[in-house]
Amino acid sequence: MKKVFLLLTLVLLSGCNLRVLDPASDSAEKITDLIYLSFAIMMLVLAVVFVLFVFFIRKYKERSETSVYIPKEKKENKWLEVTWTVIPFLLLAILAVPTVKATYDITSKMSGPGQSVSKEARIIDVEAKQFRWEFTYENGKTTLNELVLPKDQKVTFHLTSTDVIHSFWIPSLAGKVDVRPNKENRLSFVPRVTGDFQGKCAEFCGTGHANMRFETKVVTQEEFENWLATE
Ligand SMILES: [Cu+2]
After folding, report:
1. Which of 70, 84, 131, 219 has the fewest CB within 10 Å, making it most exposed?
2. pTM, two decimal places
3. Using an 8 Å Cβ cutoff, are 183 and 144 in contact?
4. What's the CA-to-centroid distance between 196 and ligand 1, angstroms?
5. Which residues are bridge partners to 148 per DSSP?
């Protein structure tokens, strides 16, 4: 029964277009790199623990000549203690430095309303509402649950909500960023790949939360200008 459930879950998830490890923007690349780095460190620790585990099981296995053997009691081993203190410290440092750097890089793009936004960025106002997303472009064009972005050009979102707290998330591109009533949050990134990406609300906001999704199309800059100019 458990296996059937697992298979069904896998089948259902395989239809899901919310991929985090498939970055298509500068911000998403940074987050993906961090995930891979922490995964690599985890695997390294796991490998060392398993090798030691097998080694000690073999070394201290009961044999006929050791069945009554009781090892001598040792009070302390300074070098062992130094080793198992220093190694985790180093691993955490290796993880912490790029994490803090990436966090600063990404969050500096989520500047508050008072701070200036670079001139070249395309500005898109995002209004979240139970249970839909409305996008307004510089020329006043609005779309519902459909976002179109130019490739290789910086986009800056001004995010607000008209009711409860939502969260803006396009797993392949960026997020999650809270979308709050009465307070504007900002998010910028540069899409690097053309294609369709799914976005959704990542903060439980009511009965229709699961359906609060939107399609994101990244197109070439020329296609974007043409699209923007049409009604
Ligand atoms: Cu929501």
Report:
1. 70
2. 0.76
3. no
4. 21
5. 217
